[in-house]
From TrEMBL, chain A:
Topology with respect to the bilayer: Multi-pass membrane protein
Family: Belongs to the binding-protein-dependent transport system permease family.
Family annotation (InterPro entries): AA_ABC_transptr_permease_3TM, ArtM/GltK/GlnP/TcyL/YhdX-like, MetI-like, MetI-like_sf
Domain of life: Bacteria
Keywords annotated in UniProt: Amino-acid transport, Cell membrane, Membrane, Transmembrane, Transmembrane helix, Transport
Full protein name: Amino acid ABC transporter (Permease)
GO cellular component term, pick one: ATP-binding cassette (ABC) transporter complex
Organism: Geobacillus thermodenitrificans (strain NG80-2)
ABC transmembrane type-1 domain sequence ranges: 1-191
Automatic annotation (TrEMBL), chain B:
Domain ABC transmembrane type-1: start-end pairs: 19-210
Protein name: Amino acid ABC transporter (Permease)
Membrane topology note: Multi-pass membrane protein
Keyword check for Membrane: yes
Keywords associated with the record: Amino-acid transport, Cell membrane, Membrane, Transmembrane, Transmembrane helix, Transport
Family of this protein: Belongs to the binding-protein-dependent transport system permease family.
From TrEMBL, chain C:
Organism whose genome encodes this protein: Geobacillus thermodenitrificans (strain NG80-2)
Pfam families: ABC_tran (PF00005)
ABC transporter domain ranges (all copies): 6-251
Localisation per UniProt entry: Cell membrane
Protein name, UniProt field: Amino acid ABC transporter ATP-binding protein
Membrane topology per record: Peripheral membrane protein
Length: 206, 237, 267
């Protein structure tokens, strides 16, 4: 659940930030760059704790804001999606740049507006190139969701830890099961990513 | 007052001291992953298909499960395993756990470097009647290593950012130091912000360095790039 | 000459330190067919790319049908054009590229309808009718639902032409449209251009290395070398009677290396 919600927000953020970094206005480019570098430069665990512990304190200190009560779920979603949004925006940016210049030129020759060129010609091609990397990031994100157990959210890891604490002698089994569980969720993602990779490389060849 | 400089003064030295542990741990994990990565790469080139399959399966498994859970496994469950199980200190568990996890990535990097060497190079070495060892040391590796250096540098940075995970098994790195201070004094904003600041301070310059390295390597290995750029700009028609 | 459709007034273009065009003056009348020839790097492609607004001139003025392309008039002064002005002038111009630049994620029909629908605002039905008509004209009426990757180079280039033609531009630019094609596919593409030329209404500017073809189709040949227009005139004058040394040297080299004899001349 956390994975799906965060992935959803992460990809939206990534596309916006990816476009932002290519924007004409220097102002927009700079803001998105700072966002991306900040979230790529600091660790996800740190961000998670910062959002969960420090952010509510910051909000409390600002007088006009209503008290910010972040559940651990939303703290997790915010941290994970902002973090991965920053990483994936790099993919978005490079894939947009990787679309052949001739495609831009043909679209200009057909007198499309900037917006139309992006929407009708560039993005549909760029998204195809992005798919394998989206898949890889989804697997990374799956692994990262285990970190939210550290701020007390009941995910697979947290549940496993709770179970272990009441059945100490089953320790090996519990941890092995947890690993297998994550692997089982990852398997279809791995498979899809491989397929996307093959599809893209085939598309390039033709 | 939102931001209390007194707390900063109080907690900064603590976190600064913990930084050395975090850095040392990063290097230790990195060394493990680099060496282990080579071993994996060699195993994956073994002549028996079933063996390669097994190795690949194991690597895929390690790669796609969370390092946090792997750390838990090493720290809590490993001592319970009959015969081979030993109790690991948090730091040892961290080094082994993250080292093994990232070795699956470095092995992938090595492989991509070797695969990227043109097939013609192998054939040329064969035509010159080079021995196997000579082919590797004189022809393949000199071409395979330079392009992967930036990639390996990237993994060093990624690993550095993964170290806070080890706080979960009690390694007193920057993260746990900040958290414990926070729990004692019930202030979290300053300690965590300082930790974030340290991470940014250390990893951003390194990532710039890696980018620079990457550009330099690309230029060295693709001299046509300049010409290509000129063509794209329309200078050369 | 009829009224000028395109005119270059002292146009210069530099890329960094290199000056590719060193002051070009050229006027092209409505319905005229002009072929630009010259050695590689002489600036002929840059000349038409500026007309398509893909490249901005460093100085000078380009006019299309009496309107400045890269400038607009504000309070009787010429200022650099904004996107709106560019789009407004650009609608008169179409271009066919050396490397086709078809949209790989769209079928042949979609390639030809996307701009009519989104840029001209035609209904899907109208756009389709127009596109089918043009695709039949380039003899690809049976390939409507095929993707570009399944076509030969010659077919791709004909689709690209149909795609430009559905916009009904007043001026069509052809940028070395046969240079990327296998020799045996050149004929089918040139044939289509020739038919277009013989219809007569459209202004056409061709950058080409096909000398025989240029001679056959063009009303006027413009020879560029080293950033200048060195010689211009009707084909006969250029190919037979010119006394310009550089032009003669260029043409003689071409005769020696000419790969394409005139095999597709119609009538």
């Amino acid at each position: 659940m956390l994975l799906i919600t965060s992935a959803f927000f992460a990809f939206i953020i990534a596309i916006i930030a990816g476009l932002g970094r290519l924007a004409k206005s220097r102002w927009i480019r700079w803001t998105t760059n700072i966002y991306v570098e900040f979230f790529r430069g600091t660790s996800l665990v740190v961000q998670l704790f910062w959002v969960y512990y420090a952010l509510p304190m910051l909000a409390k200190a600002i007088p006009f804001l209503p008290p910010l009560n972040l559940s651990s779920f939303w703290a997790g979603v915010i941290a994970v999606s902002l973090n991965y949004g920053a990483y994936v925006s790099e993919t978005v940016r490079s894939c947009i740049l990787a679309v052949d210049r001739g495609q831009h030129e043909a679209a200009i020759a057909l007198n499309m507006t900037r917006f139309q060129r992006m929407r009708l010609v560039i993005l549909p091609q760029a998204v195809r190139m992005m798919l394998p990397d989206f898949g890889n990031n989804l697997i990374q994100m799956l692994k990262s969701t285990s970190l939210v157990s550290l701020i007390g959210l009941t995910d697979i890891t947290y549940a496993g830890m709770v179970f272990r604490n009441s059945n100490i002698d089953l320790g090996i089994l519990v941890f092995a099961m947890m690993l297998v569980f994550y692997f089982l969720i990852a398997l279809p993602l791995i498979w899809l990513t491989r397929r996307a990779e093959r599809a893209v490389s085939k598309g390039m060849a033709s | 007052m939102i931001w209390d400089w007194n707390i900063v003064k109080d907690v900064f030295p603590l976190i600064f001291r913990a930084m050395w542990l975090t850095l040392g741990l990063t290097l230790a994990c990195y060394a493990v992953s680099l060496v282990l990565g080579i071993i994996w790469t060699l195993l994956r080139r073994a002549p028996w298909a079933w063996f390669r399959w097994t190795v690949n399966g194991v690597l895929e498994f390690i790669r796609s499960t969370p390092p946090l859970v792997q750390l838990y496994f090493l720290f809590y469950a490993w001592p319970l395993v009959p015969h081979v199980g030993v109790t690991l200190s948090p730091i040892a568990a961290a080094i082994i756990g993250l080292g093994v996890h990232y070795s699956t990535y470095t092995s992938e990097v090595y492989r991509s470097g070797i695969d990227a060497v043109d097939k013609g190079q192998w054939e040329a070495a064969l035509a010159l009647n080079f021995s196997r060892a000579r082919t590797w040391t004189k022809v393949i590796l000199p071409q395979a290593i330079p392009p992967i250096i930036p990639m390996l540098g990237n993994y060093l940075i990624i690993m550095f950012k993964e170290i806070p995970t080890t706080a979960s098994i009690g390694v007193m790195g920057m993260m746990l130091t900040a958290k414990m201070y926070g729990a004692q004094h019930w202030v979290y904003l300053e300690p965590f912000t300082i930790v974030a600041f340290f991470f940014l301070l250390l990893s951003y310059p390194s990532s710039l360095f890696v980018q620079w390295l990457e550009k330099k390597m690309n230029r060295r290995f693709d001299k046509n790039e300049v010409l290509h750029e000129a063509k794209q700009k329309g200078v050369v028609v | 000459m009829t009224r000028p459709m395109v005119s270059y007034k002292n146009v210069r273009k530099s890329f960094g330190q290199i000056e590719v065009l060193k002051g070009v003056n050229l006027e092209i009348g409505e319905g005229e067919k002009v072929a630009l020839i010259g050695p590689s790097g002489s600036g002929k492609t840059t000349l038409i790319r500026m007309l398509m607004t893909l490249e901005q001139p460093t100085s000078g003025v380009i006019e299309v049908d009496g309107t400045p392309l890269w400038h607009m008039e504000v309070n009787k002064k010429l200022v650099p054009a904004n996107e709106k002005h560019l789009r407004n002038v650009r609608k008169n111009i179409g271009m066919v590229f050396q490397h086709f630049n078809l949209f790989p994620h769209m079928t042949v029909l979609e390639n030809c309808t996307v701009a009519p629908i989104h840029v001209l605002g035609l209904s899907k039905k109208e756009a389709r009718e127009r596109a089918v008509e043009m695709l039949e004209k380039v003899k690809l009426g049976d390939k409507l639902d095929v993707y570009p990757s399944q076509l030969s180079g010659g077919q791709k280039q004909r689709v690209a032409m149909a795609r430009a033609l559905v916009m009904r531009p007043k001026v069509m630019l052809f940028d070395e449209v046969t240079s990327a094609l296998d020799p045996e596919l050149v004929g089918e593409v040139l044939e289509v251009i020739r038919e277009l030329a013989h219809e007569g209404k459209m202004t056409m500017i061709l950058v080409t290395h096909e000398m025989e073809f240029a001679r056959d189709v063009a009303d006027r040949i413009v020879f560029l070398d080293n950033g200048y227009i060195v010689e211009e005139g009707p084909p006969e004058q250029i190919f037979e009677y010119s006394s310009n040394e550089r032009l003669k040297r260029f043409l003689s080299r071409f005769r020696l290396h000419s790969v394409y004899p005139l095999t597709t001349r119609s009538v």
